[in-house]
């Protein structure tokens, strides 16, 4: 009779310990963001005297000043164009490639898969110099279209493997029935395969879009005009010019982070479910 209360007490103690560990991990993850937000609401003198404390009198105008001084509106608009174009282009390119490798009898498909794995692992720094000269000769340097094309090439290999992992598990009976009814390959892909693998396309679009939004090296290398900079390079240019006013830098950084944070919170369930169900988590 005494074993059950002891066991219940041990389970309660283990549960509280688990909650304590999860709380510490949550503070570790959210703590820097909270400090970042508090610093954005302080004056420079208050930030110097109390970098980790709460703001005594919140300076909400810091966000308006950072928005204007850093041209965050133009940067966010350019990032929206880049993110949407990158996500749509990657879905089209990787969707067609994944359908060809996963559902059609394409010669050398195994070699293509190996090639995509290798290209996904190669660092982009290896191609910066030849790509810079090529883009300059083609007139794509300092052009959002040129940056978007590079993103298509960088993010499509992984997206192709991701979407293909969905397609290889689909039963072929539906496609064969559609072909018997006279449907061509494009109709089979659009009417039969696409509705069943749309979580894979959504996951690929989210990964490509978030990666394009946060990407810095390619953006700072191939975009120089202020009115064409995405938000990552616009914030970098602002930070370089305002190294002494860390309150405005914090406000500008928070403006840059909020859209990604909101998008991920709204779509996190579909993103995680799609990534897990793809079978690429190992």
Largest sheet: none
Spans of 5+ residues with little confidence (pLDDT < 50)? none
CATH-assigned homologous superfamily of the largest domain? MetI-like
Annotated CATH topology of the largest domain: MetI-like fold
Number of strands: 0
CATH-defined architecture of the largest domain: Orthogonal Bundle
In whole angstroms, the N-to-C terminal distance is 45 Å
Mean pLDDT: 84
Q: Indicate the radius of gyration in whole angstroms.
A: 24 Å
**What proportion of the residues form beta strands (DSSP E)?**
under 5%
Structural class: mainly alpha
The geometry reads as globular
Q: What is the number of helices?
A: 12
SSE sequence, one letter per element: HHHHHHHHHHHH
Number of domains: 2
CATH top level class name of the largest domain: Mainly Alpha
The percent range for helix content is: over 70%
Give an overview in words.
The protein is 78% helix and 0% strand. α3 packs across α12 (246-277), α4 packs antiparallel against α9 (185-214) and α8 (173-180) packs across α9 (185-214). By secondary structure, it is mainly α. The two termini are 45 Å apart. The longest helix has 38 residues, at 3-40. The protein has 2 domains: 3-49; 72-277, MetI-like (MetI-like fold, Orthogonal Bundle), CATH 1.10.3720.10. The protein has helices at residues 3-40, 44-49, 61-69, 72-103, 109-121, 128-138, 144-167, 173-180, 185-214, 217-222, 231-241, 246-277.
């Amino acid at each position: 009779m005494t074993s059950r209360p002891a066991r219940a007490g041990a389970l309660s103690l283990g549960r509280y310990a688990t909650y304590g560990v999860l709380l510490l991990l949550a503070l570790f993850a959210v703590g820097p963001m909270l400090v970042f937000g508090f610093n954005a609401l302080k004056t420079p003198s208050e930030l110097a005297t109390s970098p980790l404390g709460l703001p005594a009198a919140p300076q909400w105008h810091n966000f308006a000043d950072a928005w204007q001084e850093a041209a965050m509106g133009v940067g966010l608009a350019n990032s929206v164009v880049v993110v949407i174009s990158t996500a749509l282009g990657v879905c089209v390119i990787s969707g067609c490639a994944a359908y060809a490798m996963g559902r059609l009898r394409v010669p050398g498909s195994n070699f293509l898969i190996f090639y995509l794995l290798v290209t996904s692992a190669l660092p982009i720094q290896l191609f910066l110099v030849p790509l810079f000269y090529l883009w300059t000769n083609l007139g794509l340097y300092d052009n959002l279209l040129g940056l978007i094309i590079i993103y298509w090439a960088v993010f499509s290999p992984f997206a192709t493997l991701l979407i293909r992992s969905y397609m290889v598990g689909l039963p072929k009976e539906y496609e064969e029935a559609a072909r018997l009814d006279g449907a061509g390959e494009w109709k089979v892909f659009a009417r039969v395969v696409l509705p069943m693998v749309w979580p894979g396309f959504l996951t690929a679009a989210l990964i490509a879009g978030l990666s394009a939004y946060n990407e810095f090296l390619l953006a700072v290398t191939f975009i120089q005009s202020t009115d064409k900079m995405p938000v990552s390079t616009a914030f970098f240019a602002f930070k370089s010019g305002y190294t002494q006013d860390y309150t405005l830098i914090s406000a500008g950084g928070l403006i840059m982070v909020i859209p990604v944070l909101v998008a991920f919170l709204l779509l996190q369930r579909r993103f995680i479910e799609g990534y897990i169900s793809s079978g690429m988590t190992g």
